[in-house]
Amino acid sequence: MKLNRPGHAGTLLALAVAMTGLAACGHHPAAPAGATSAPPATRTATASPAPVPSPTGTVISARVSYSWHWPNDVSQPGLVAHPVSAPPVPELVAISAGEHPRELGGLPYNRLSFTFTRAFPSYQFRFVSSLVSNPSGRTVPLGGKGVLQVTFRPAQAHSAAGHSSVVTQPPTDLGFTRMVDWAQGGDFEGVLTYGIGVNWPVAHSNPQFPVRAVEVEKVSAQGQHLYVVAIDIAAG
Question: How does residue 98 score in pLDDT terms, banded at 50, 70 and 90?
Answer without folding.
Answer: very high
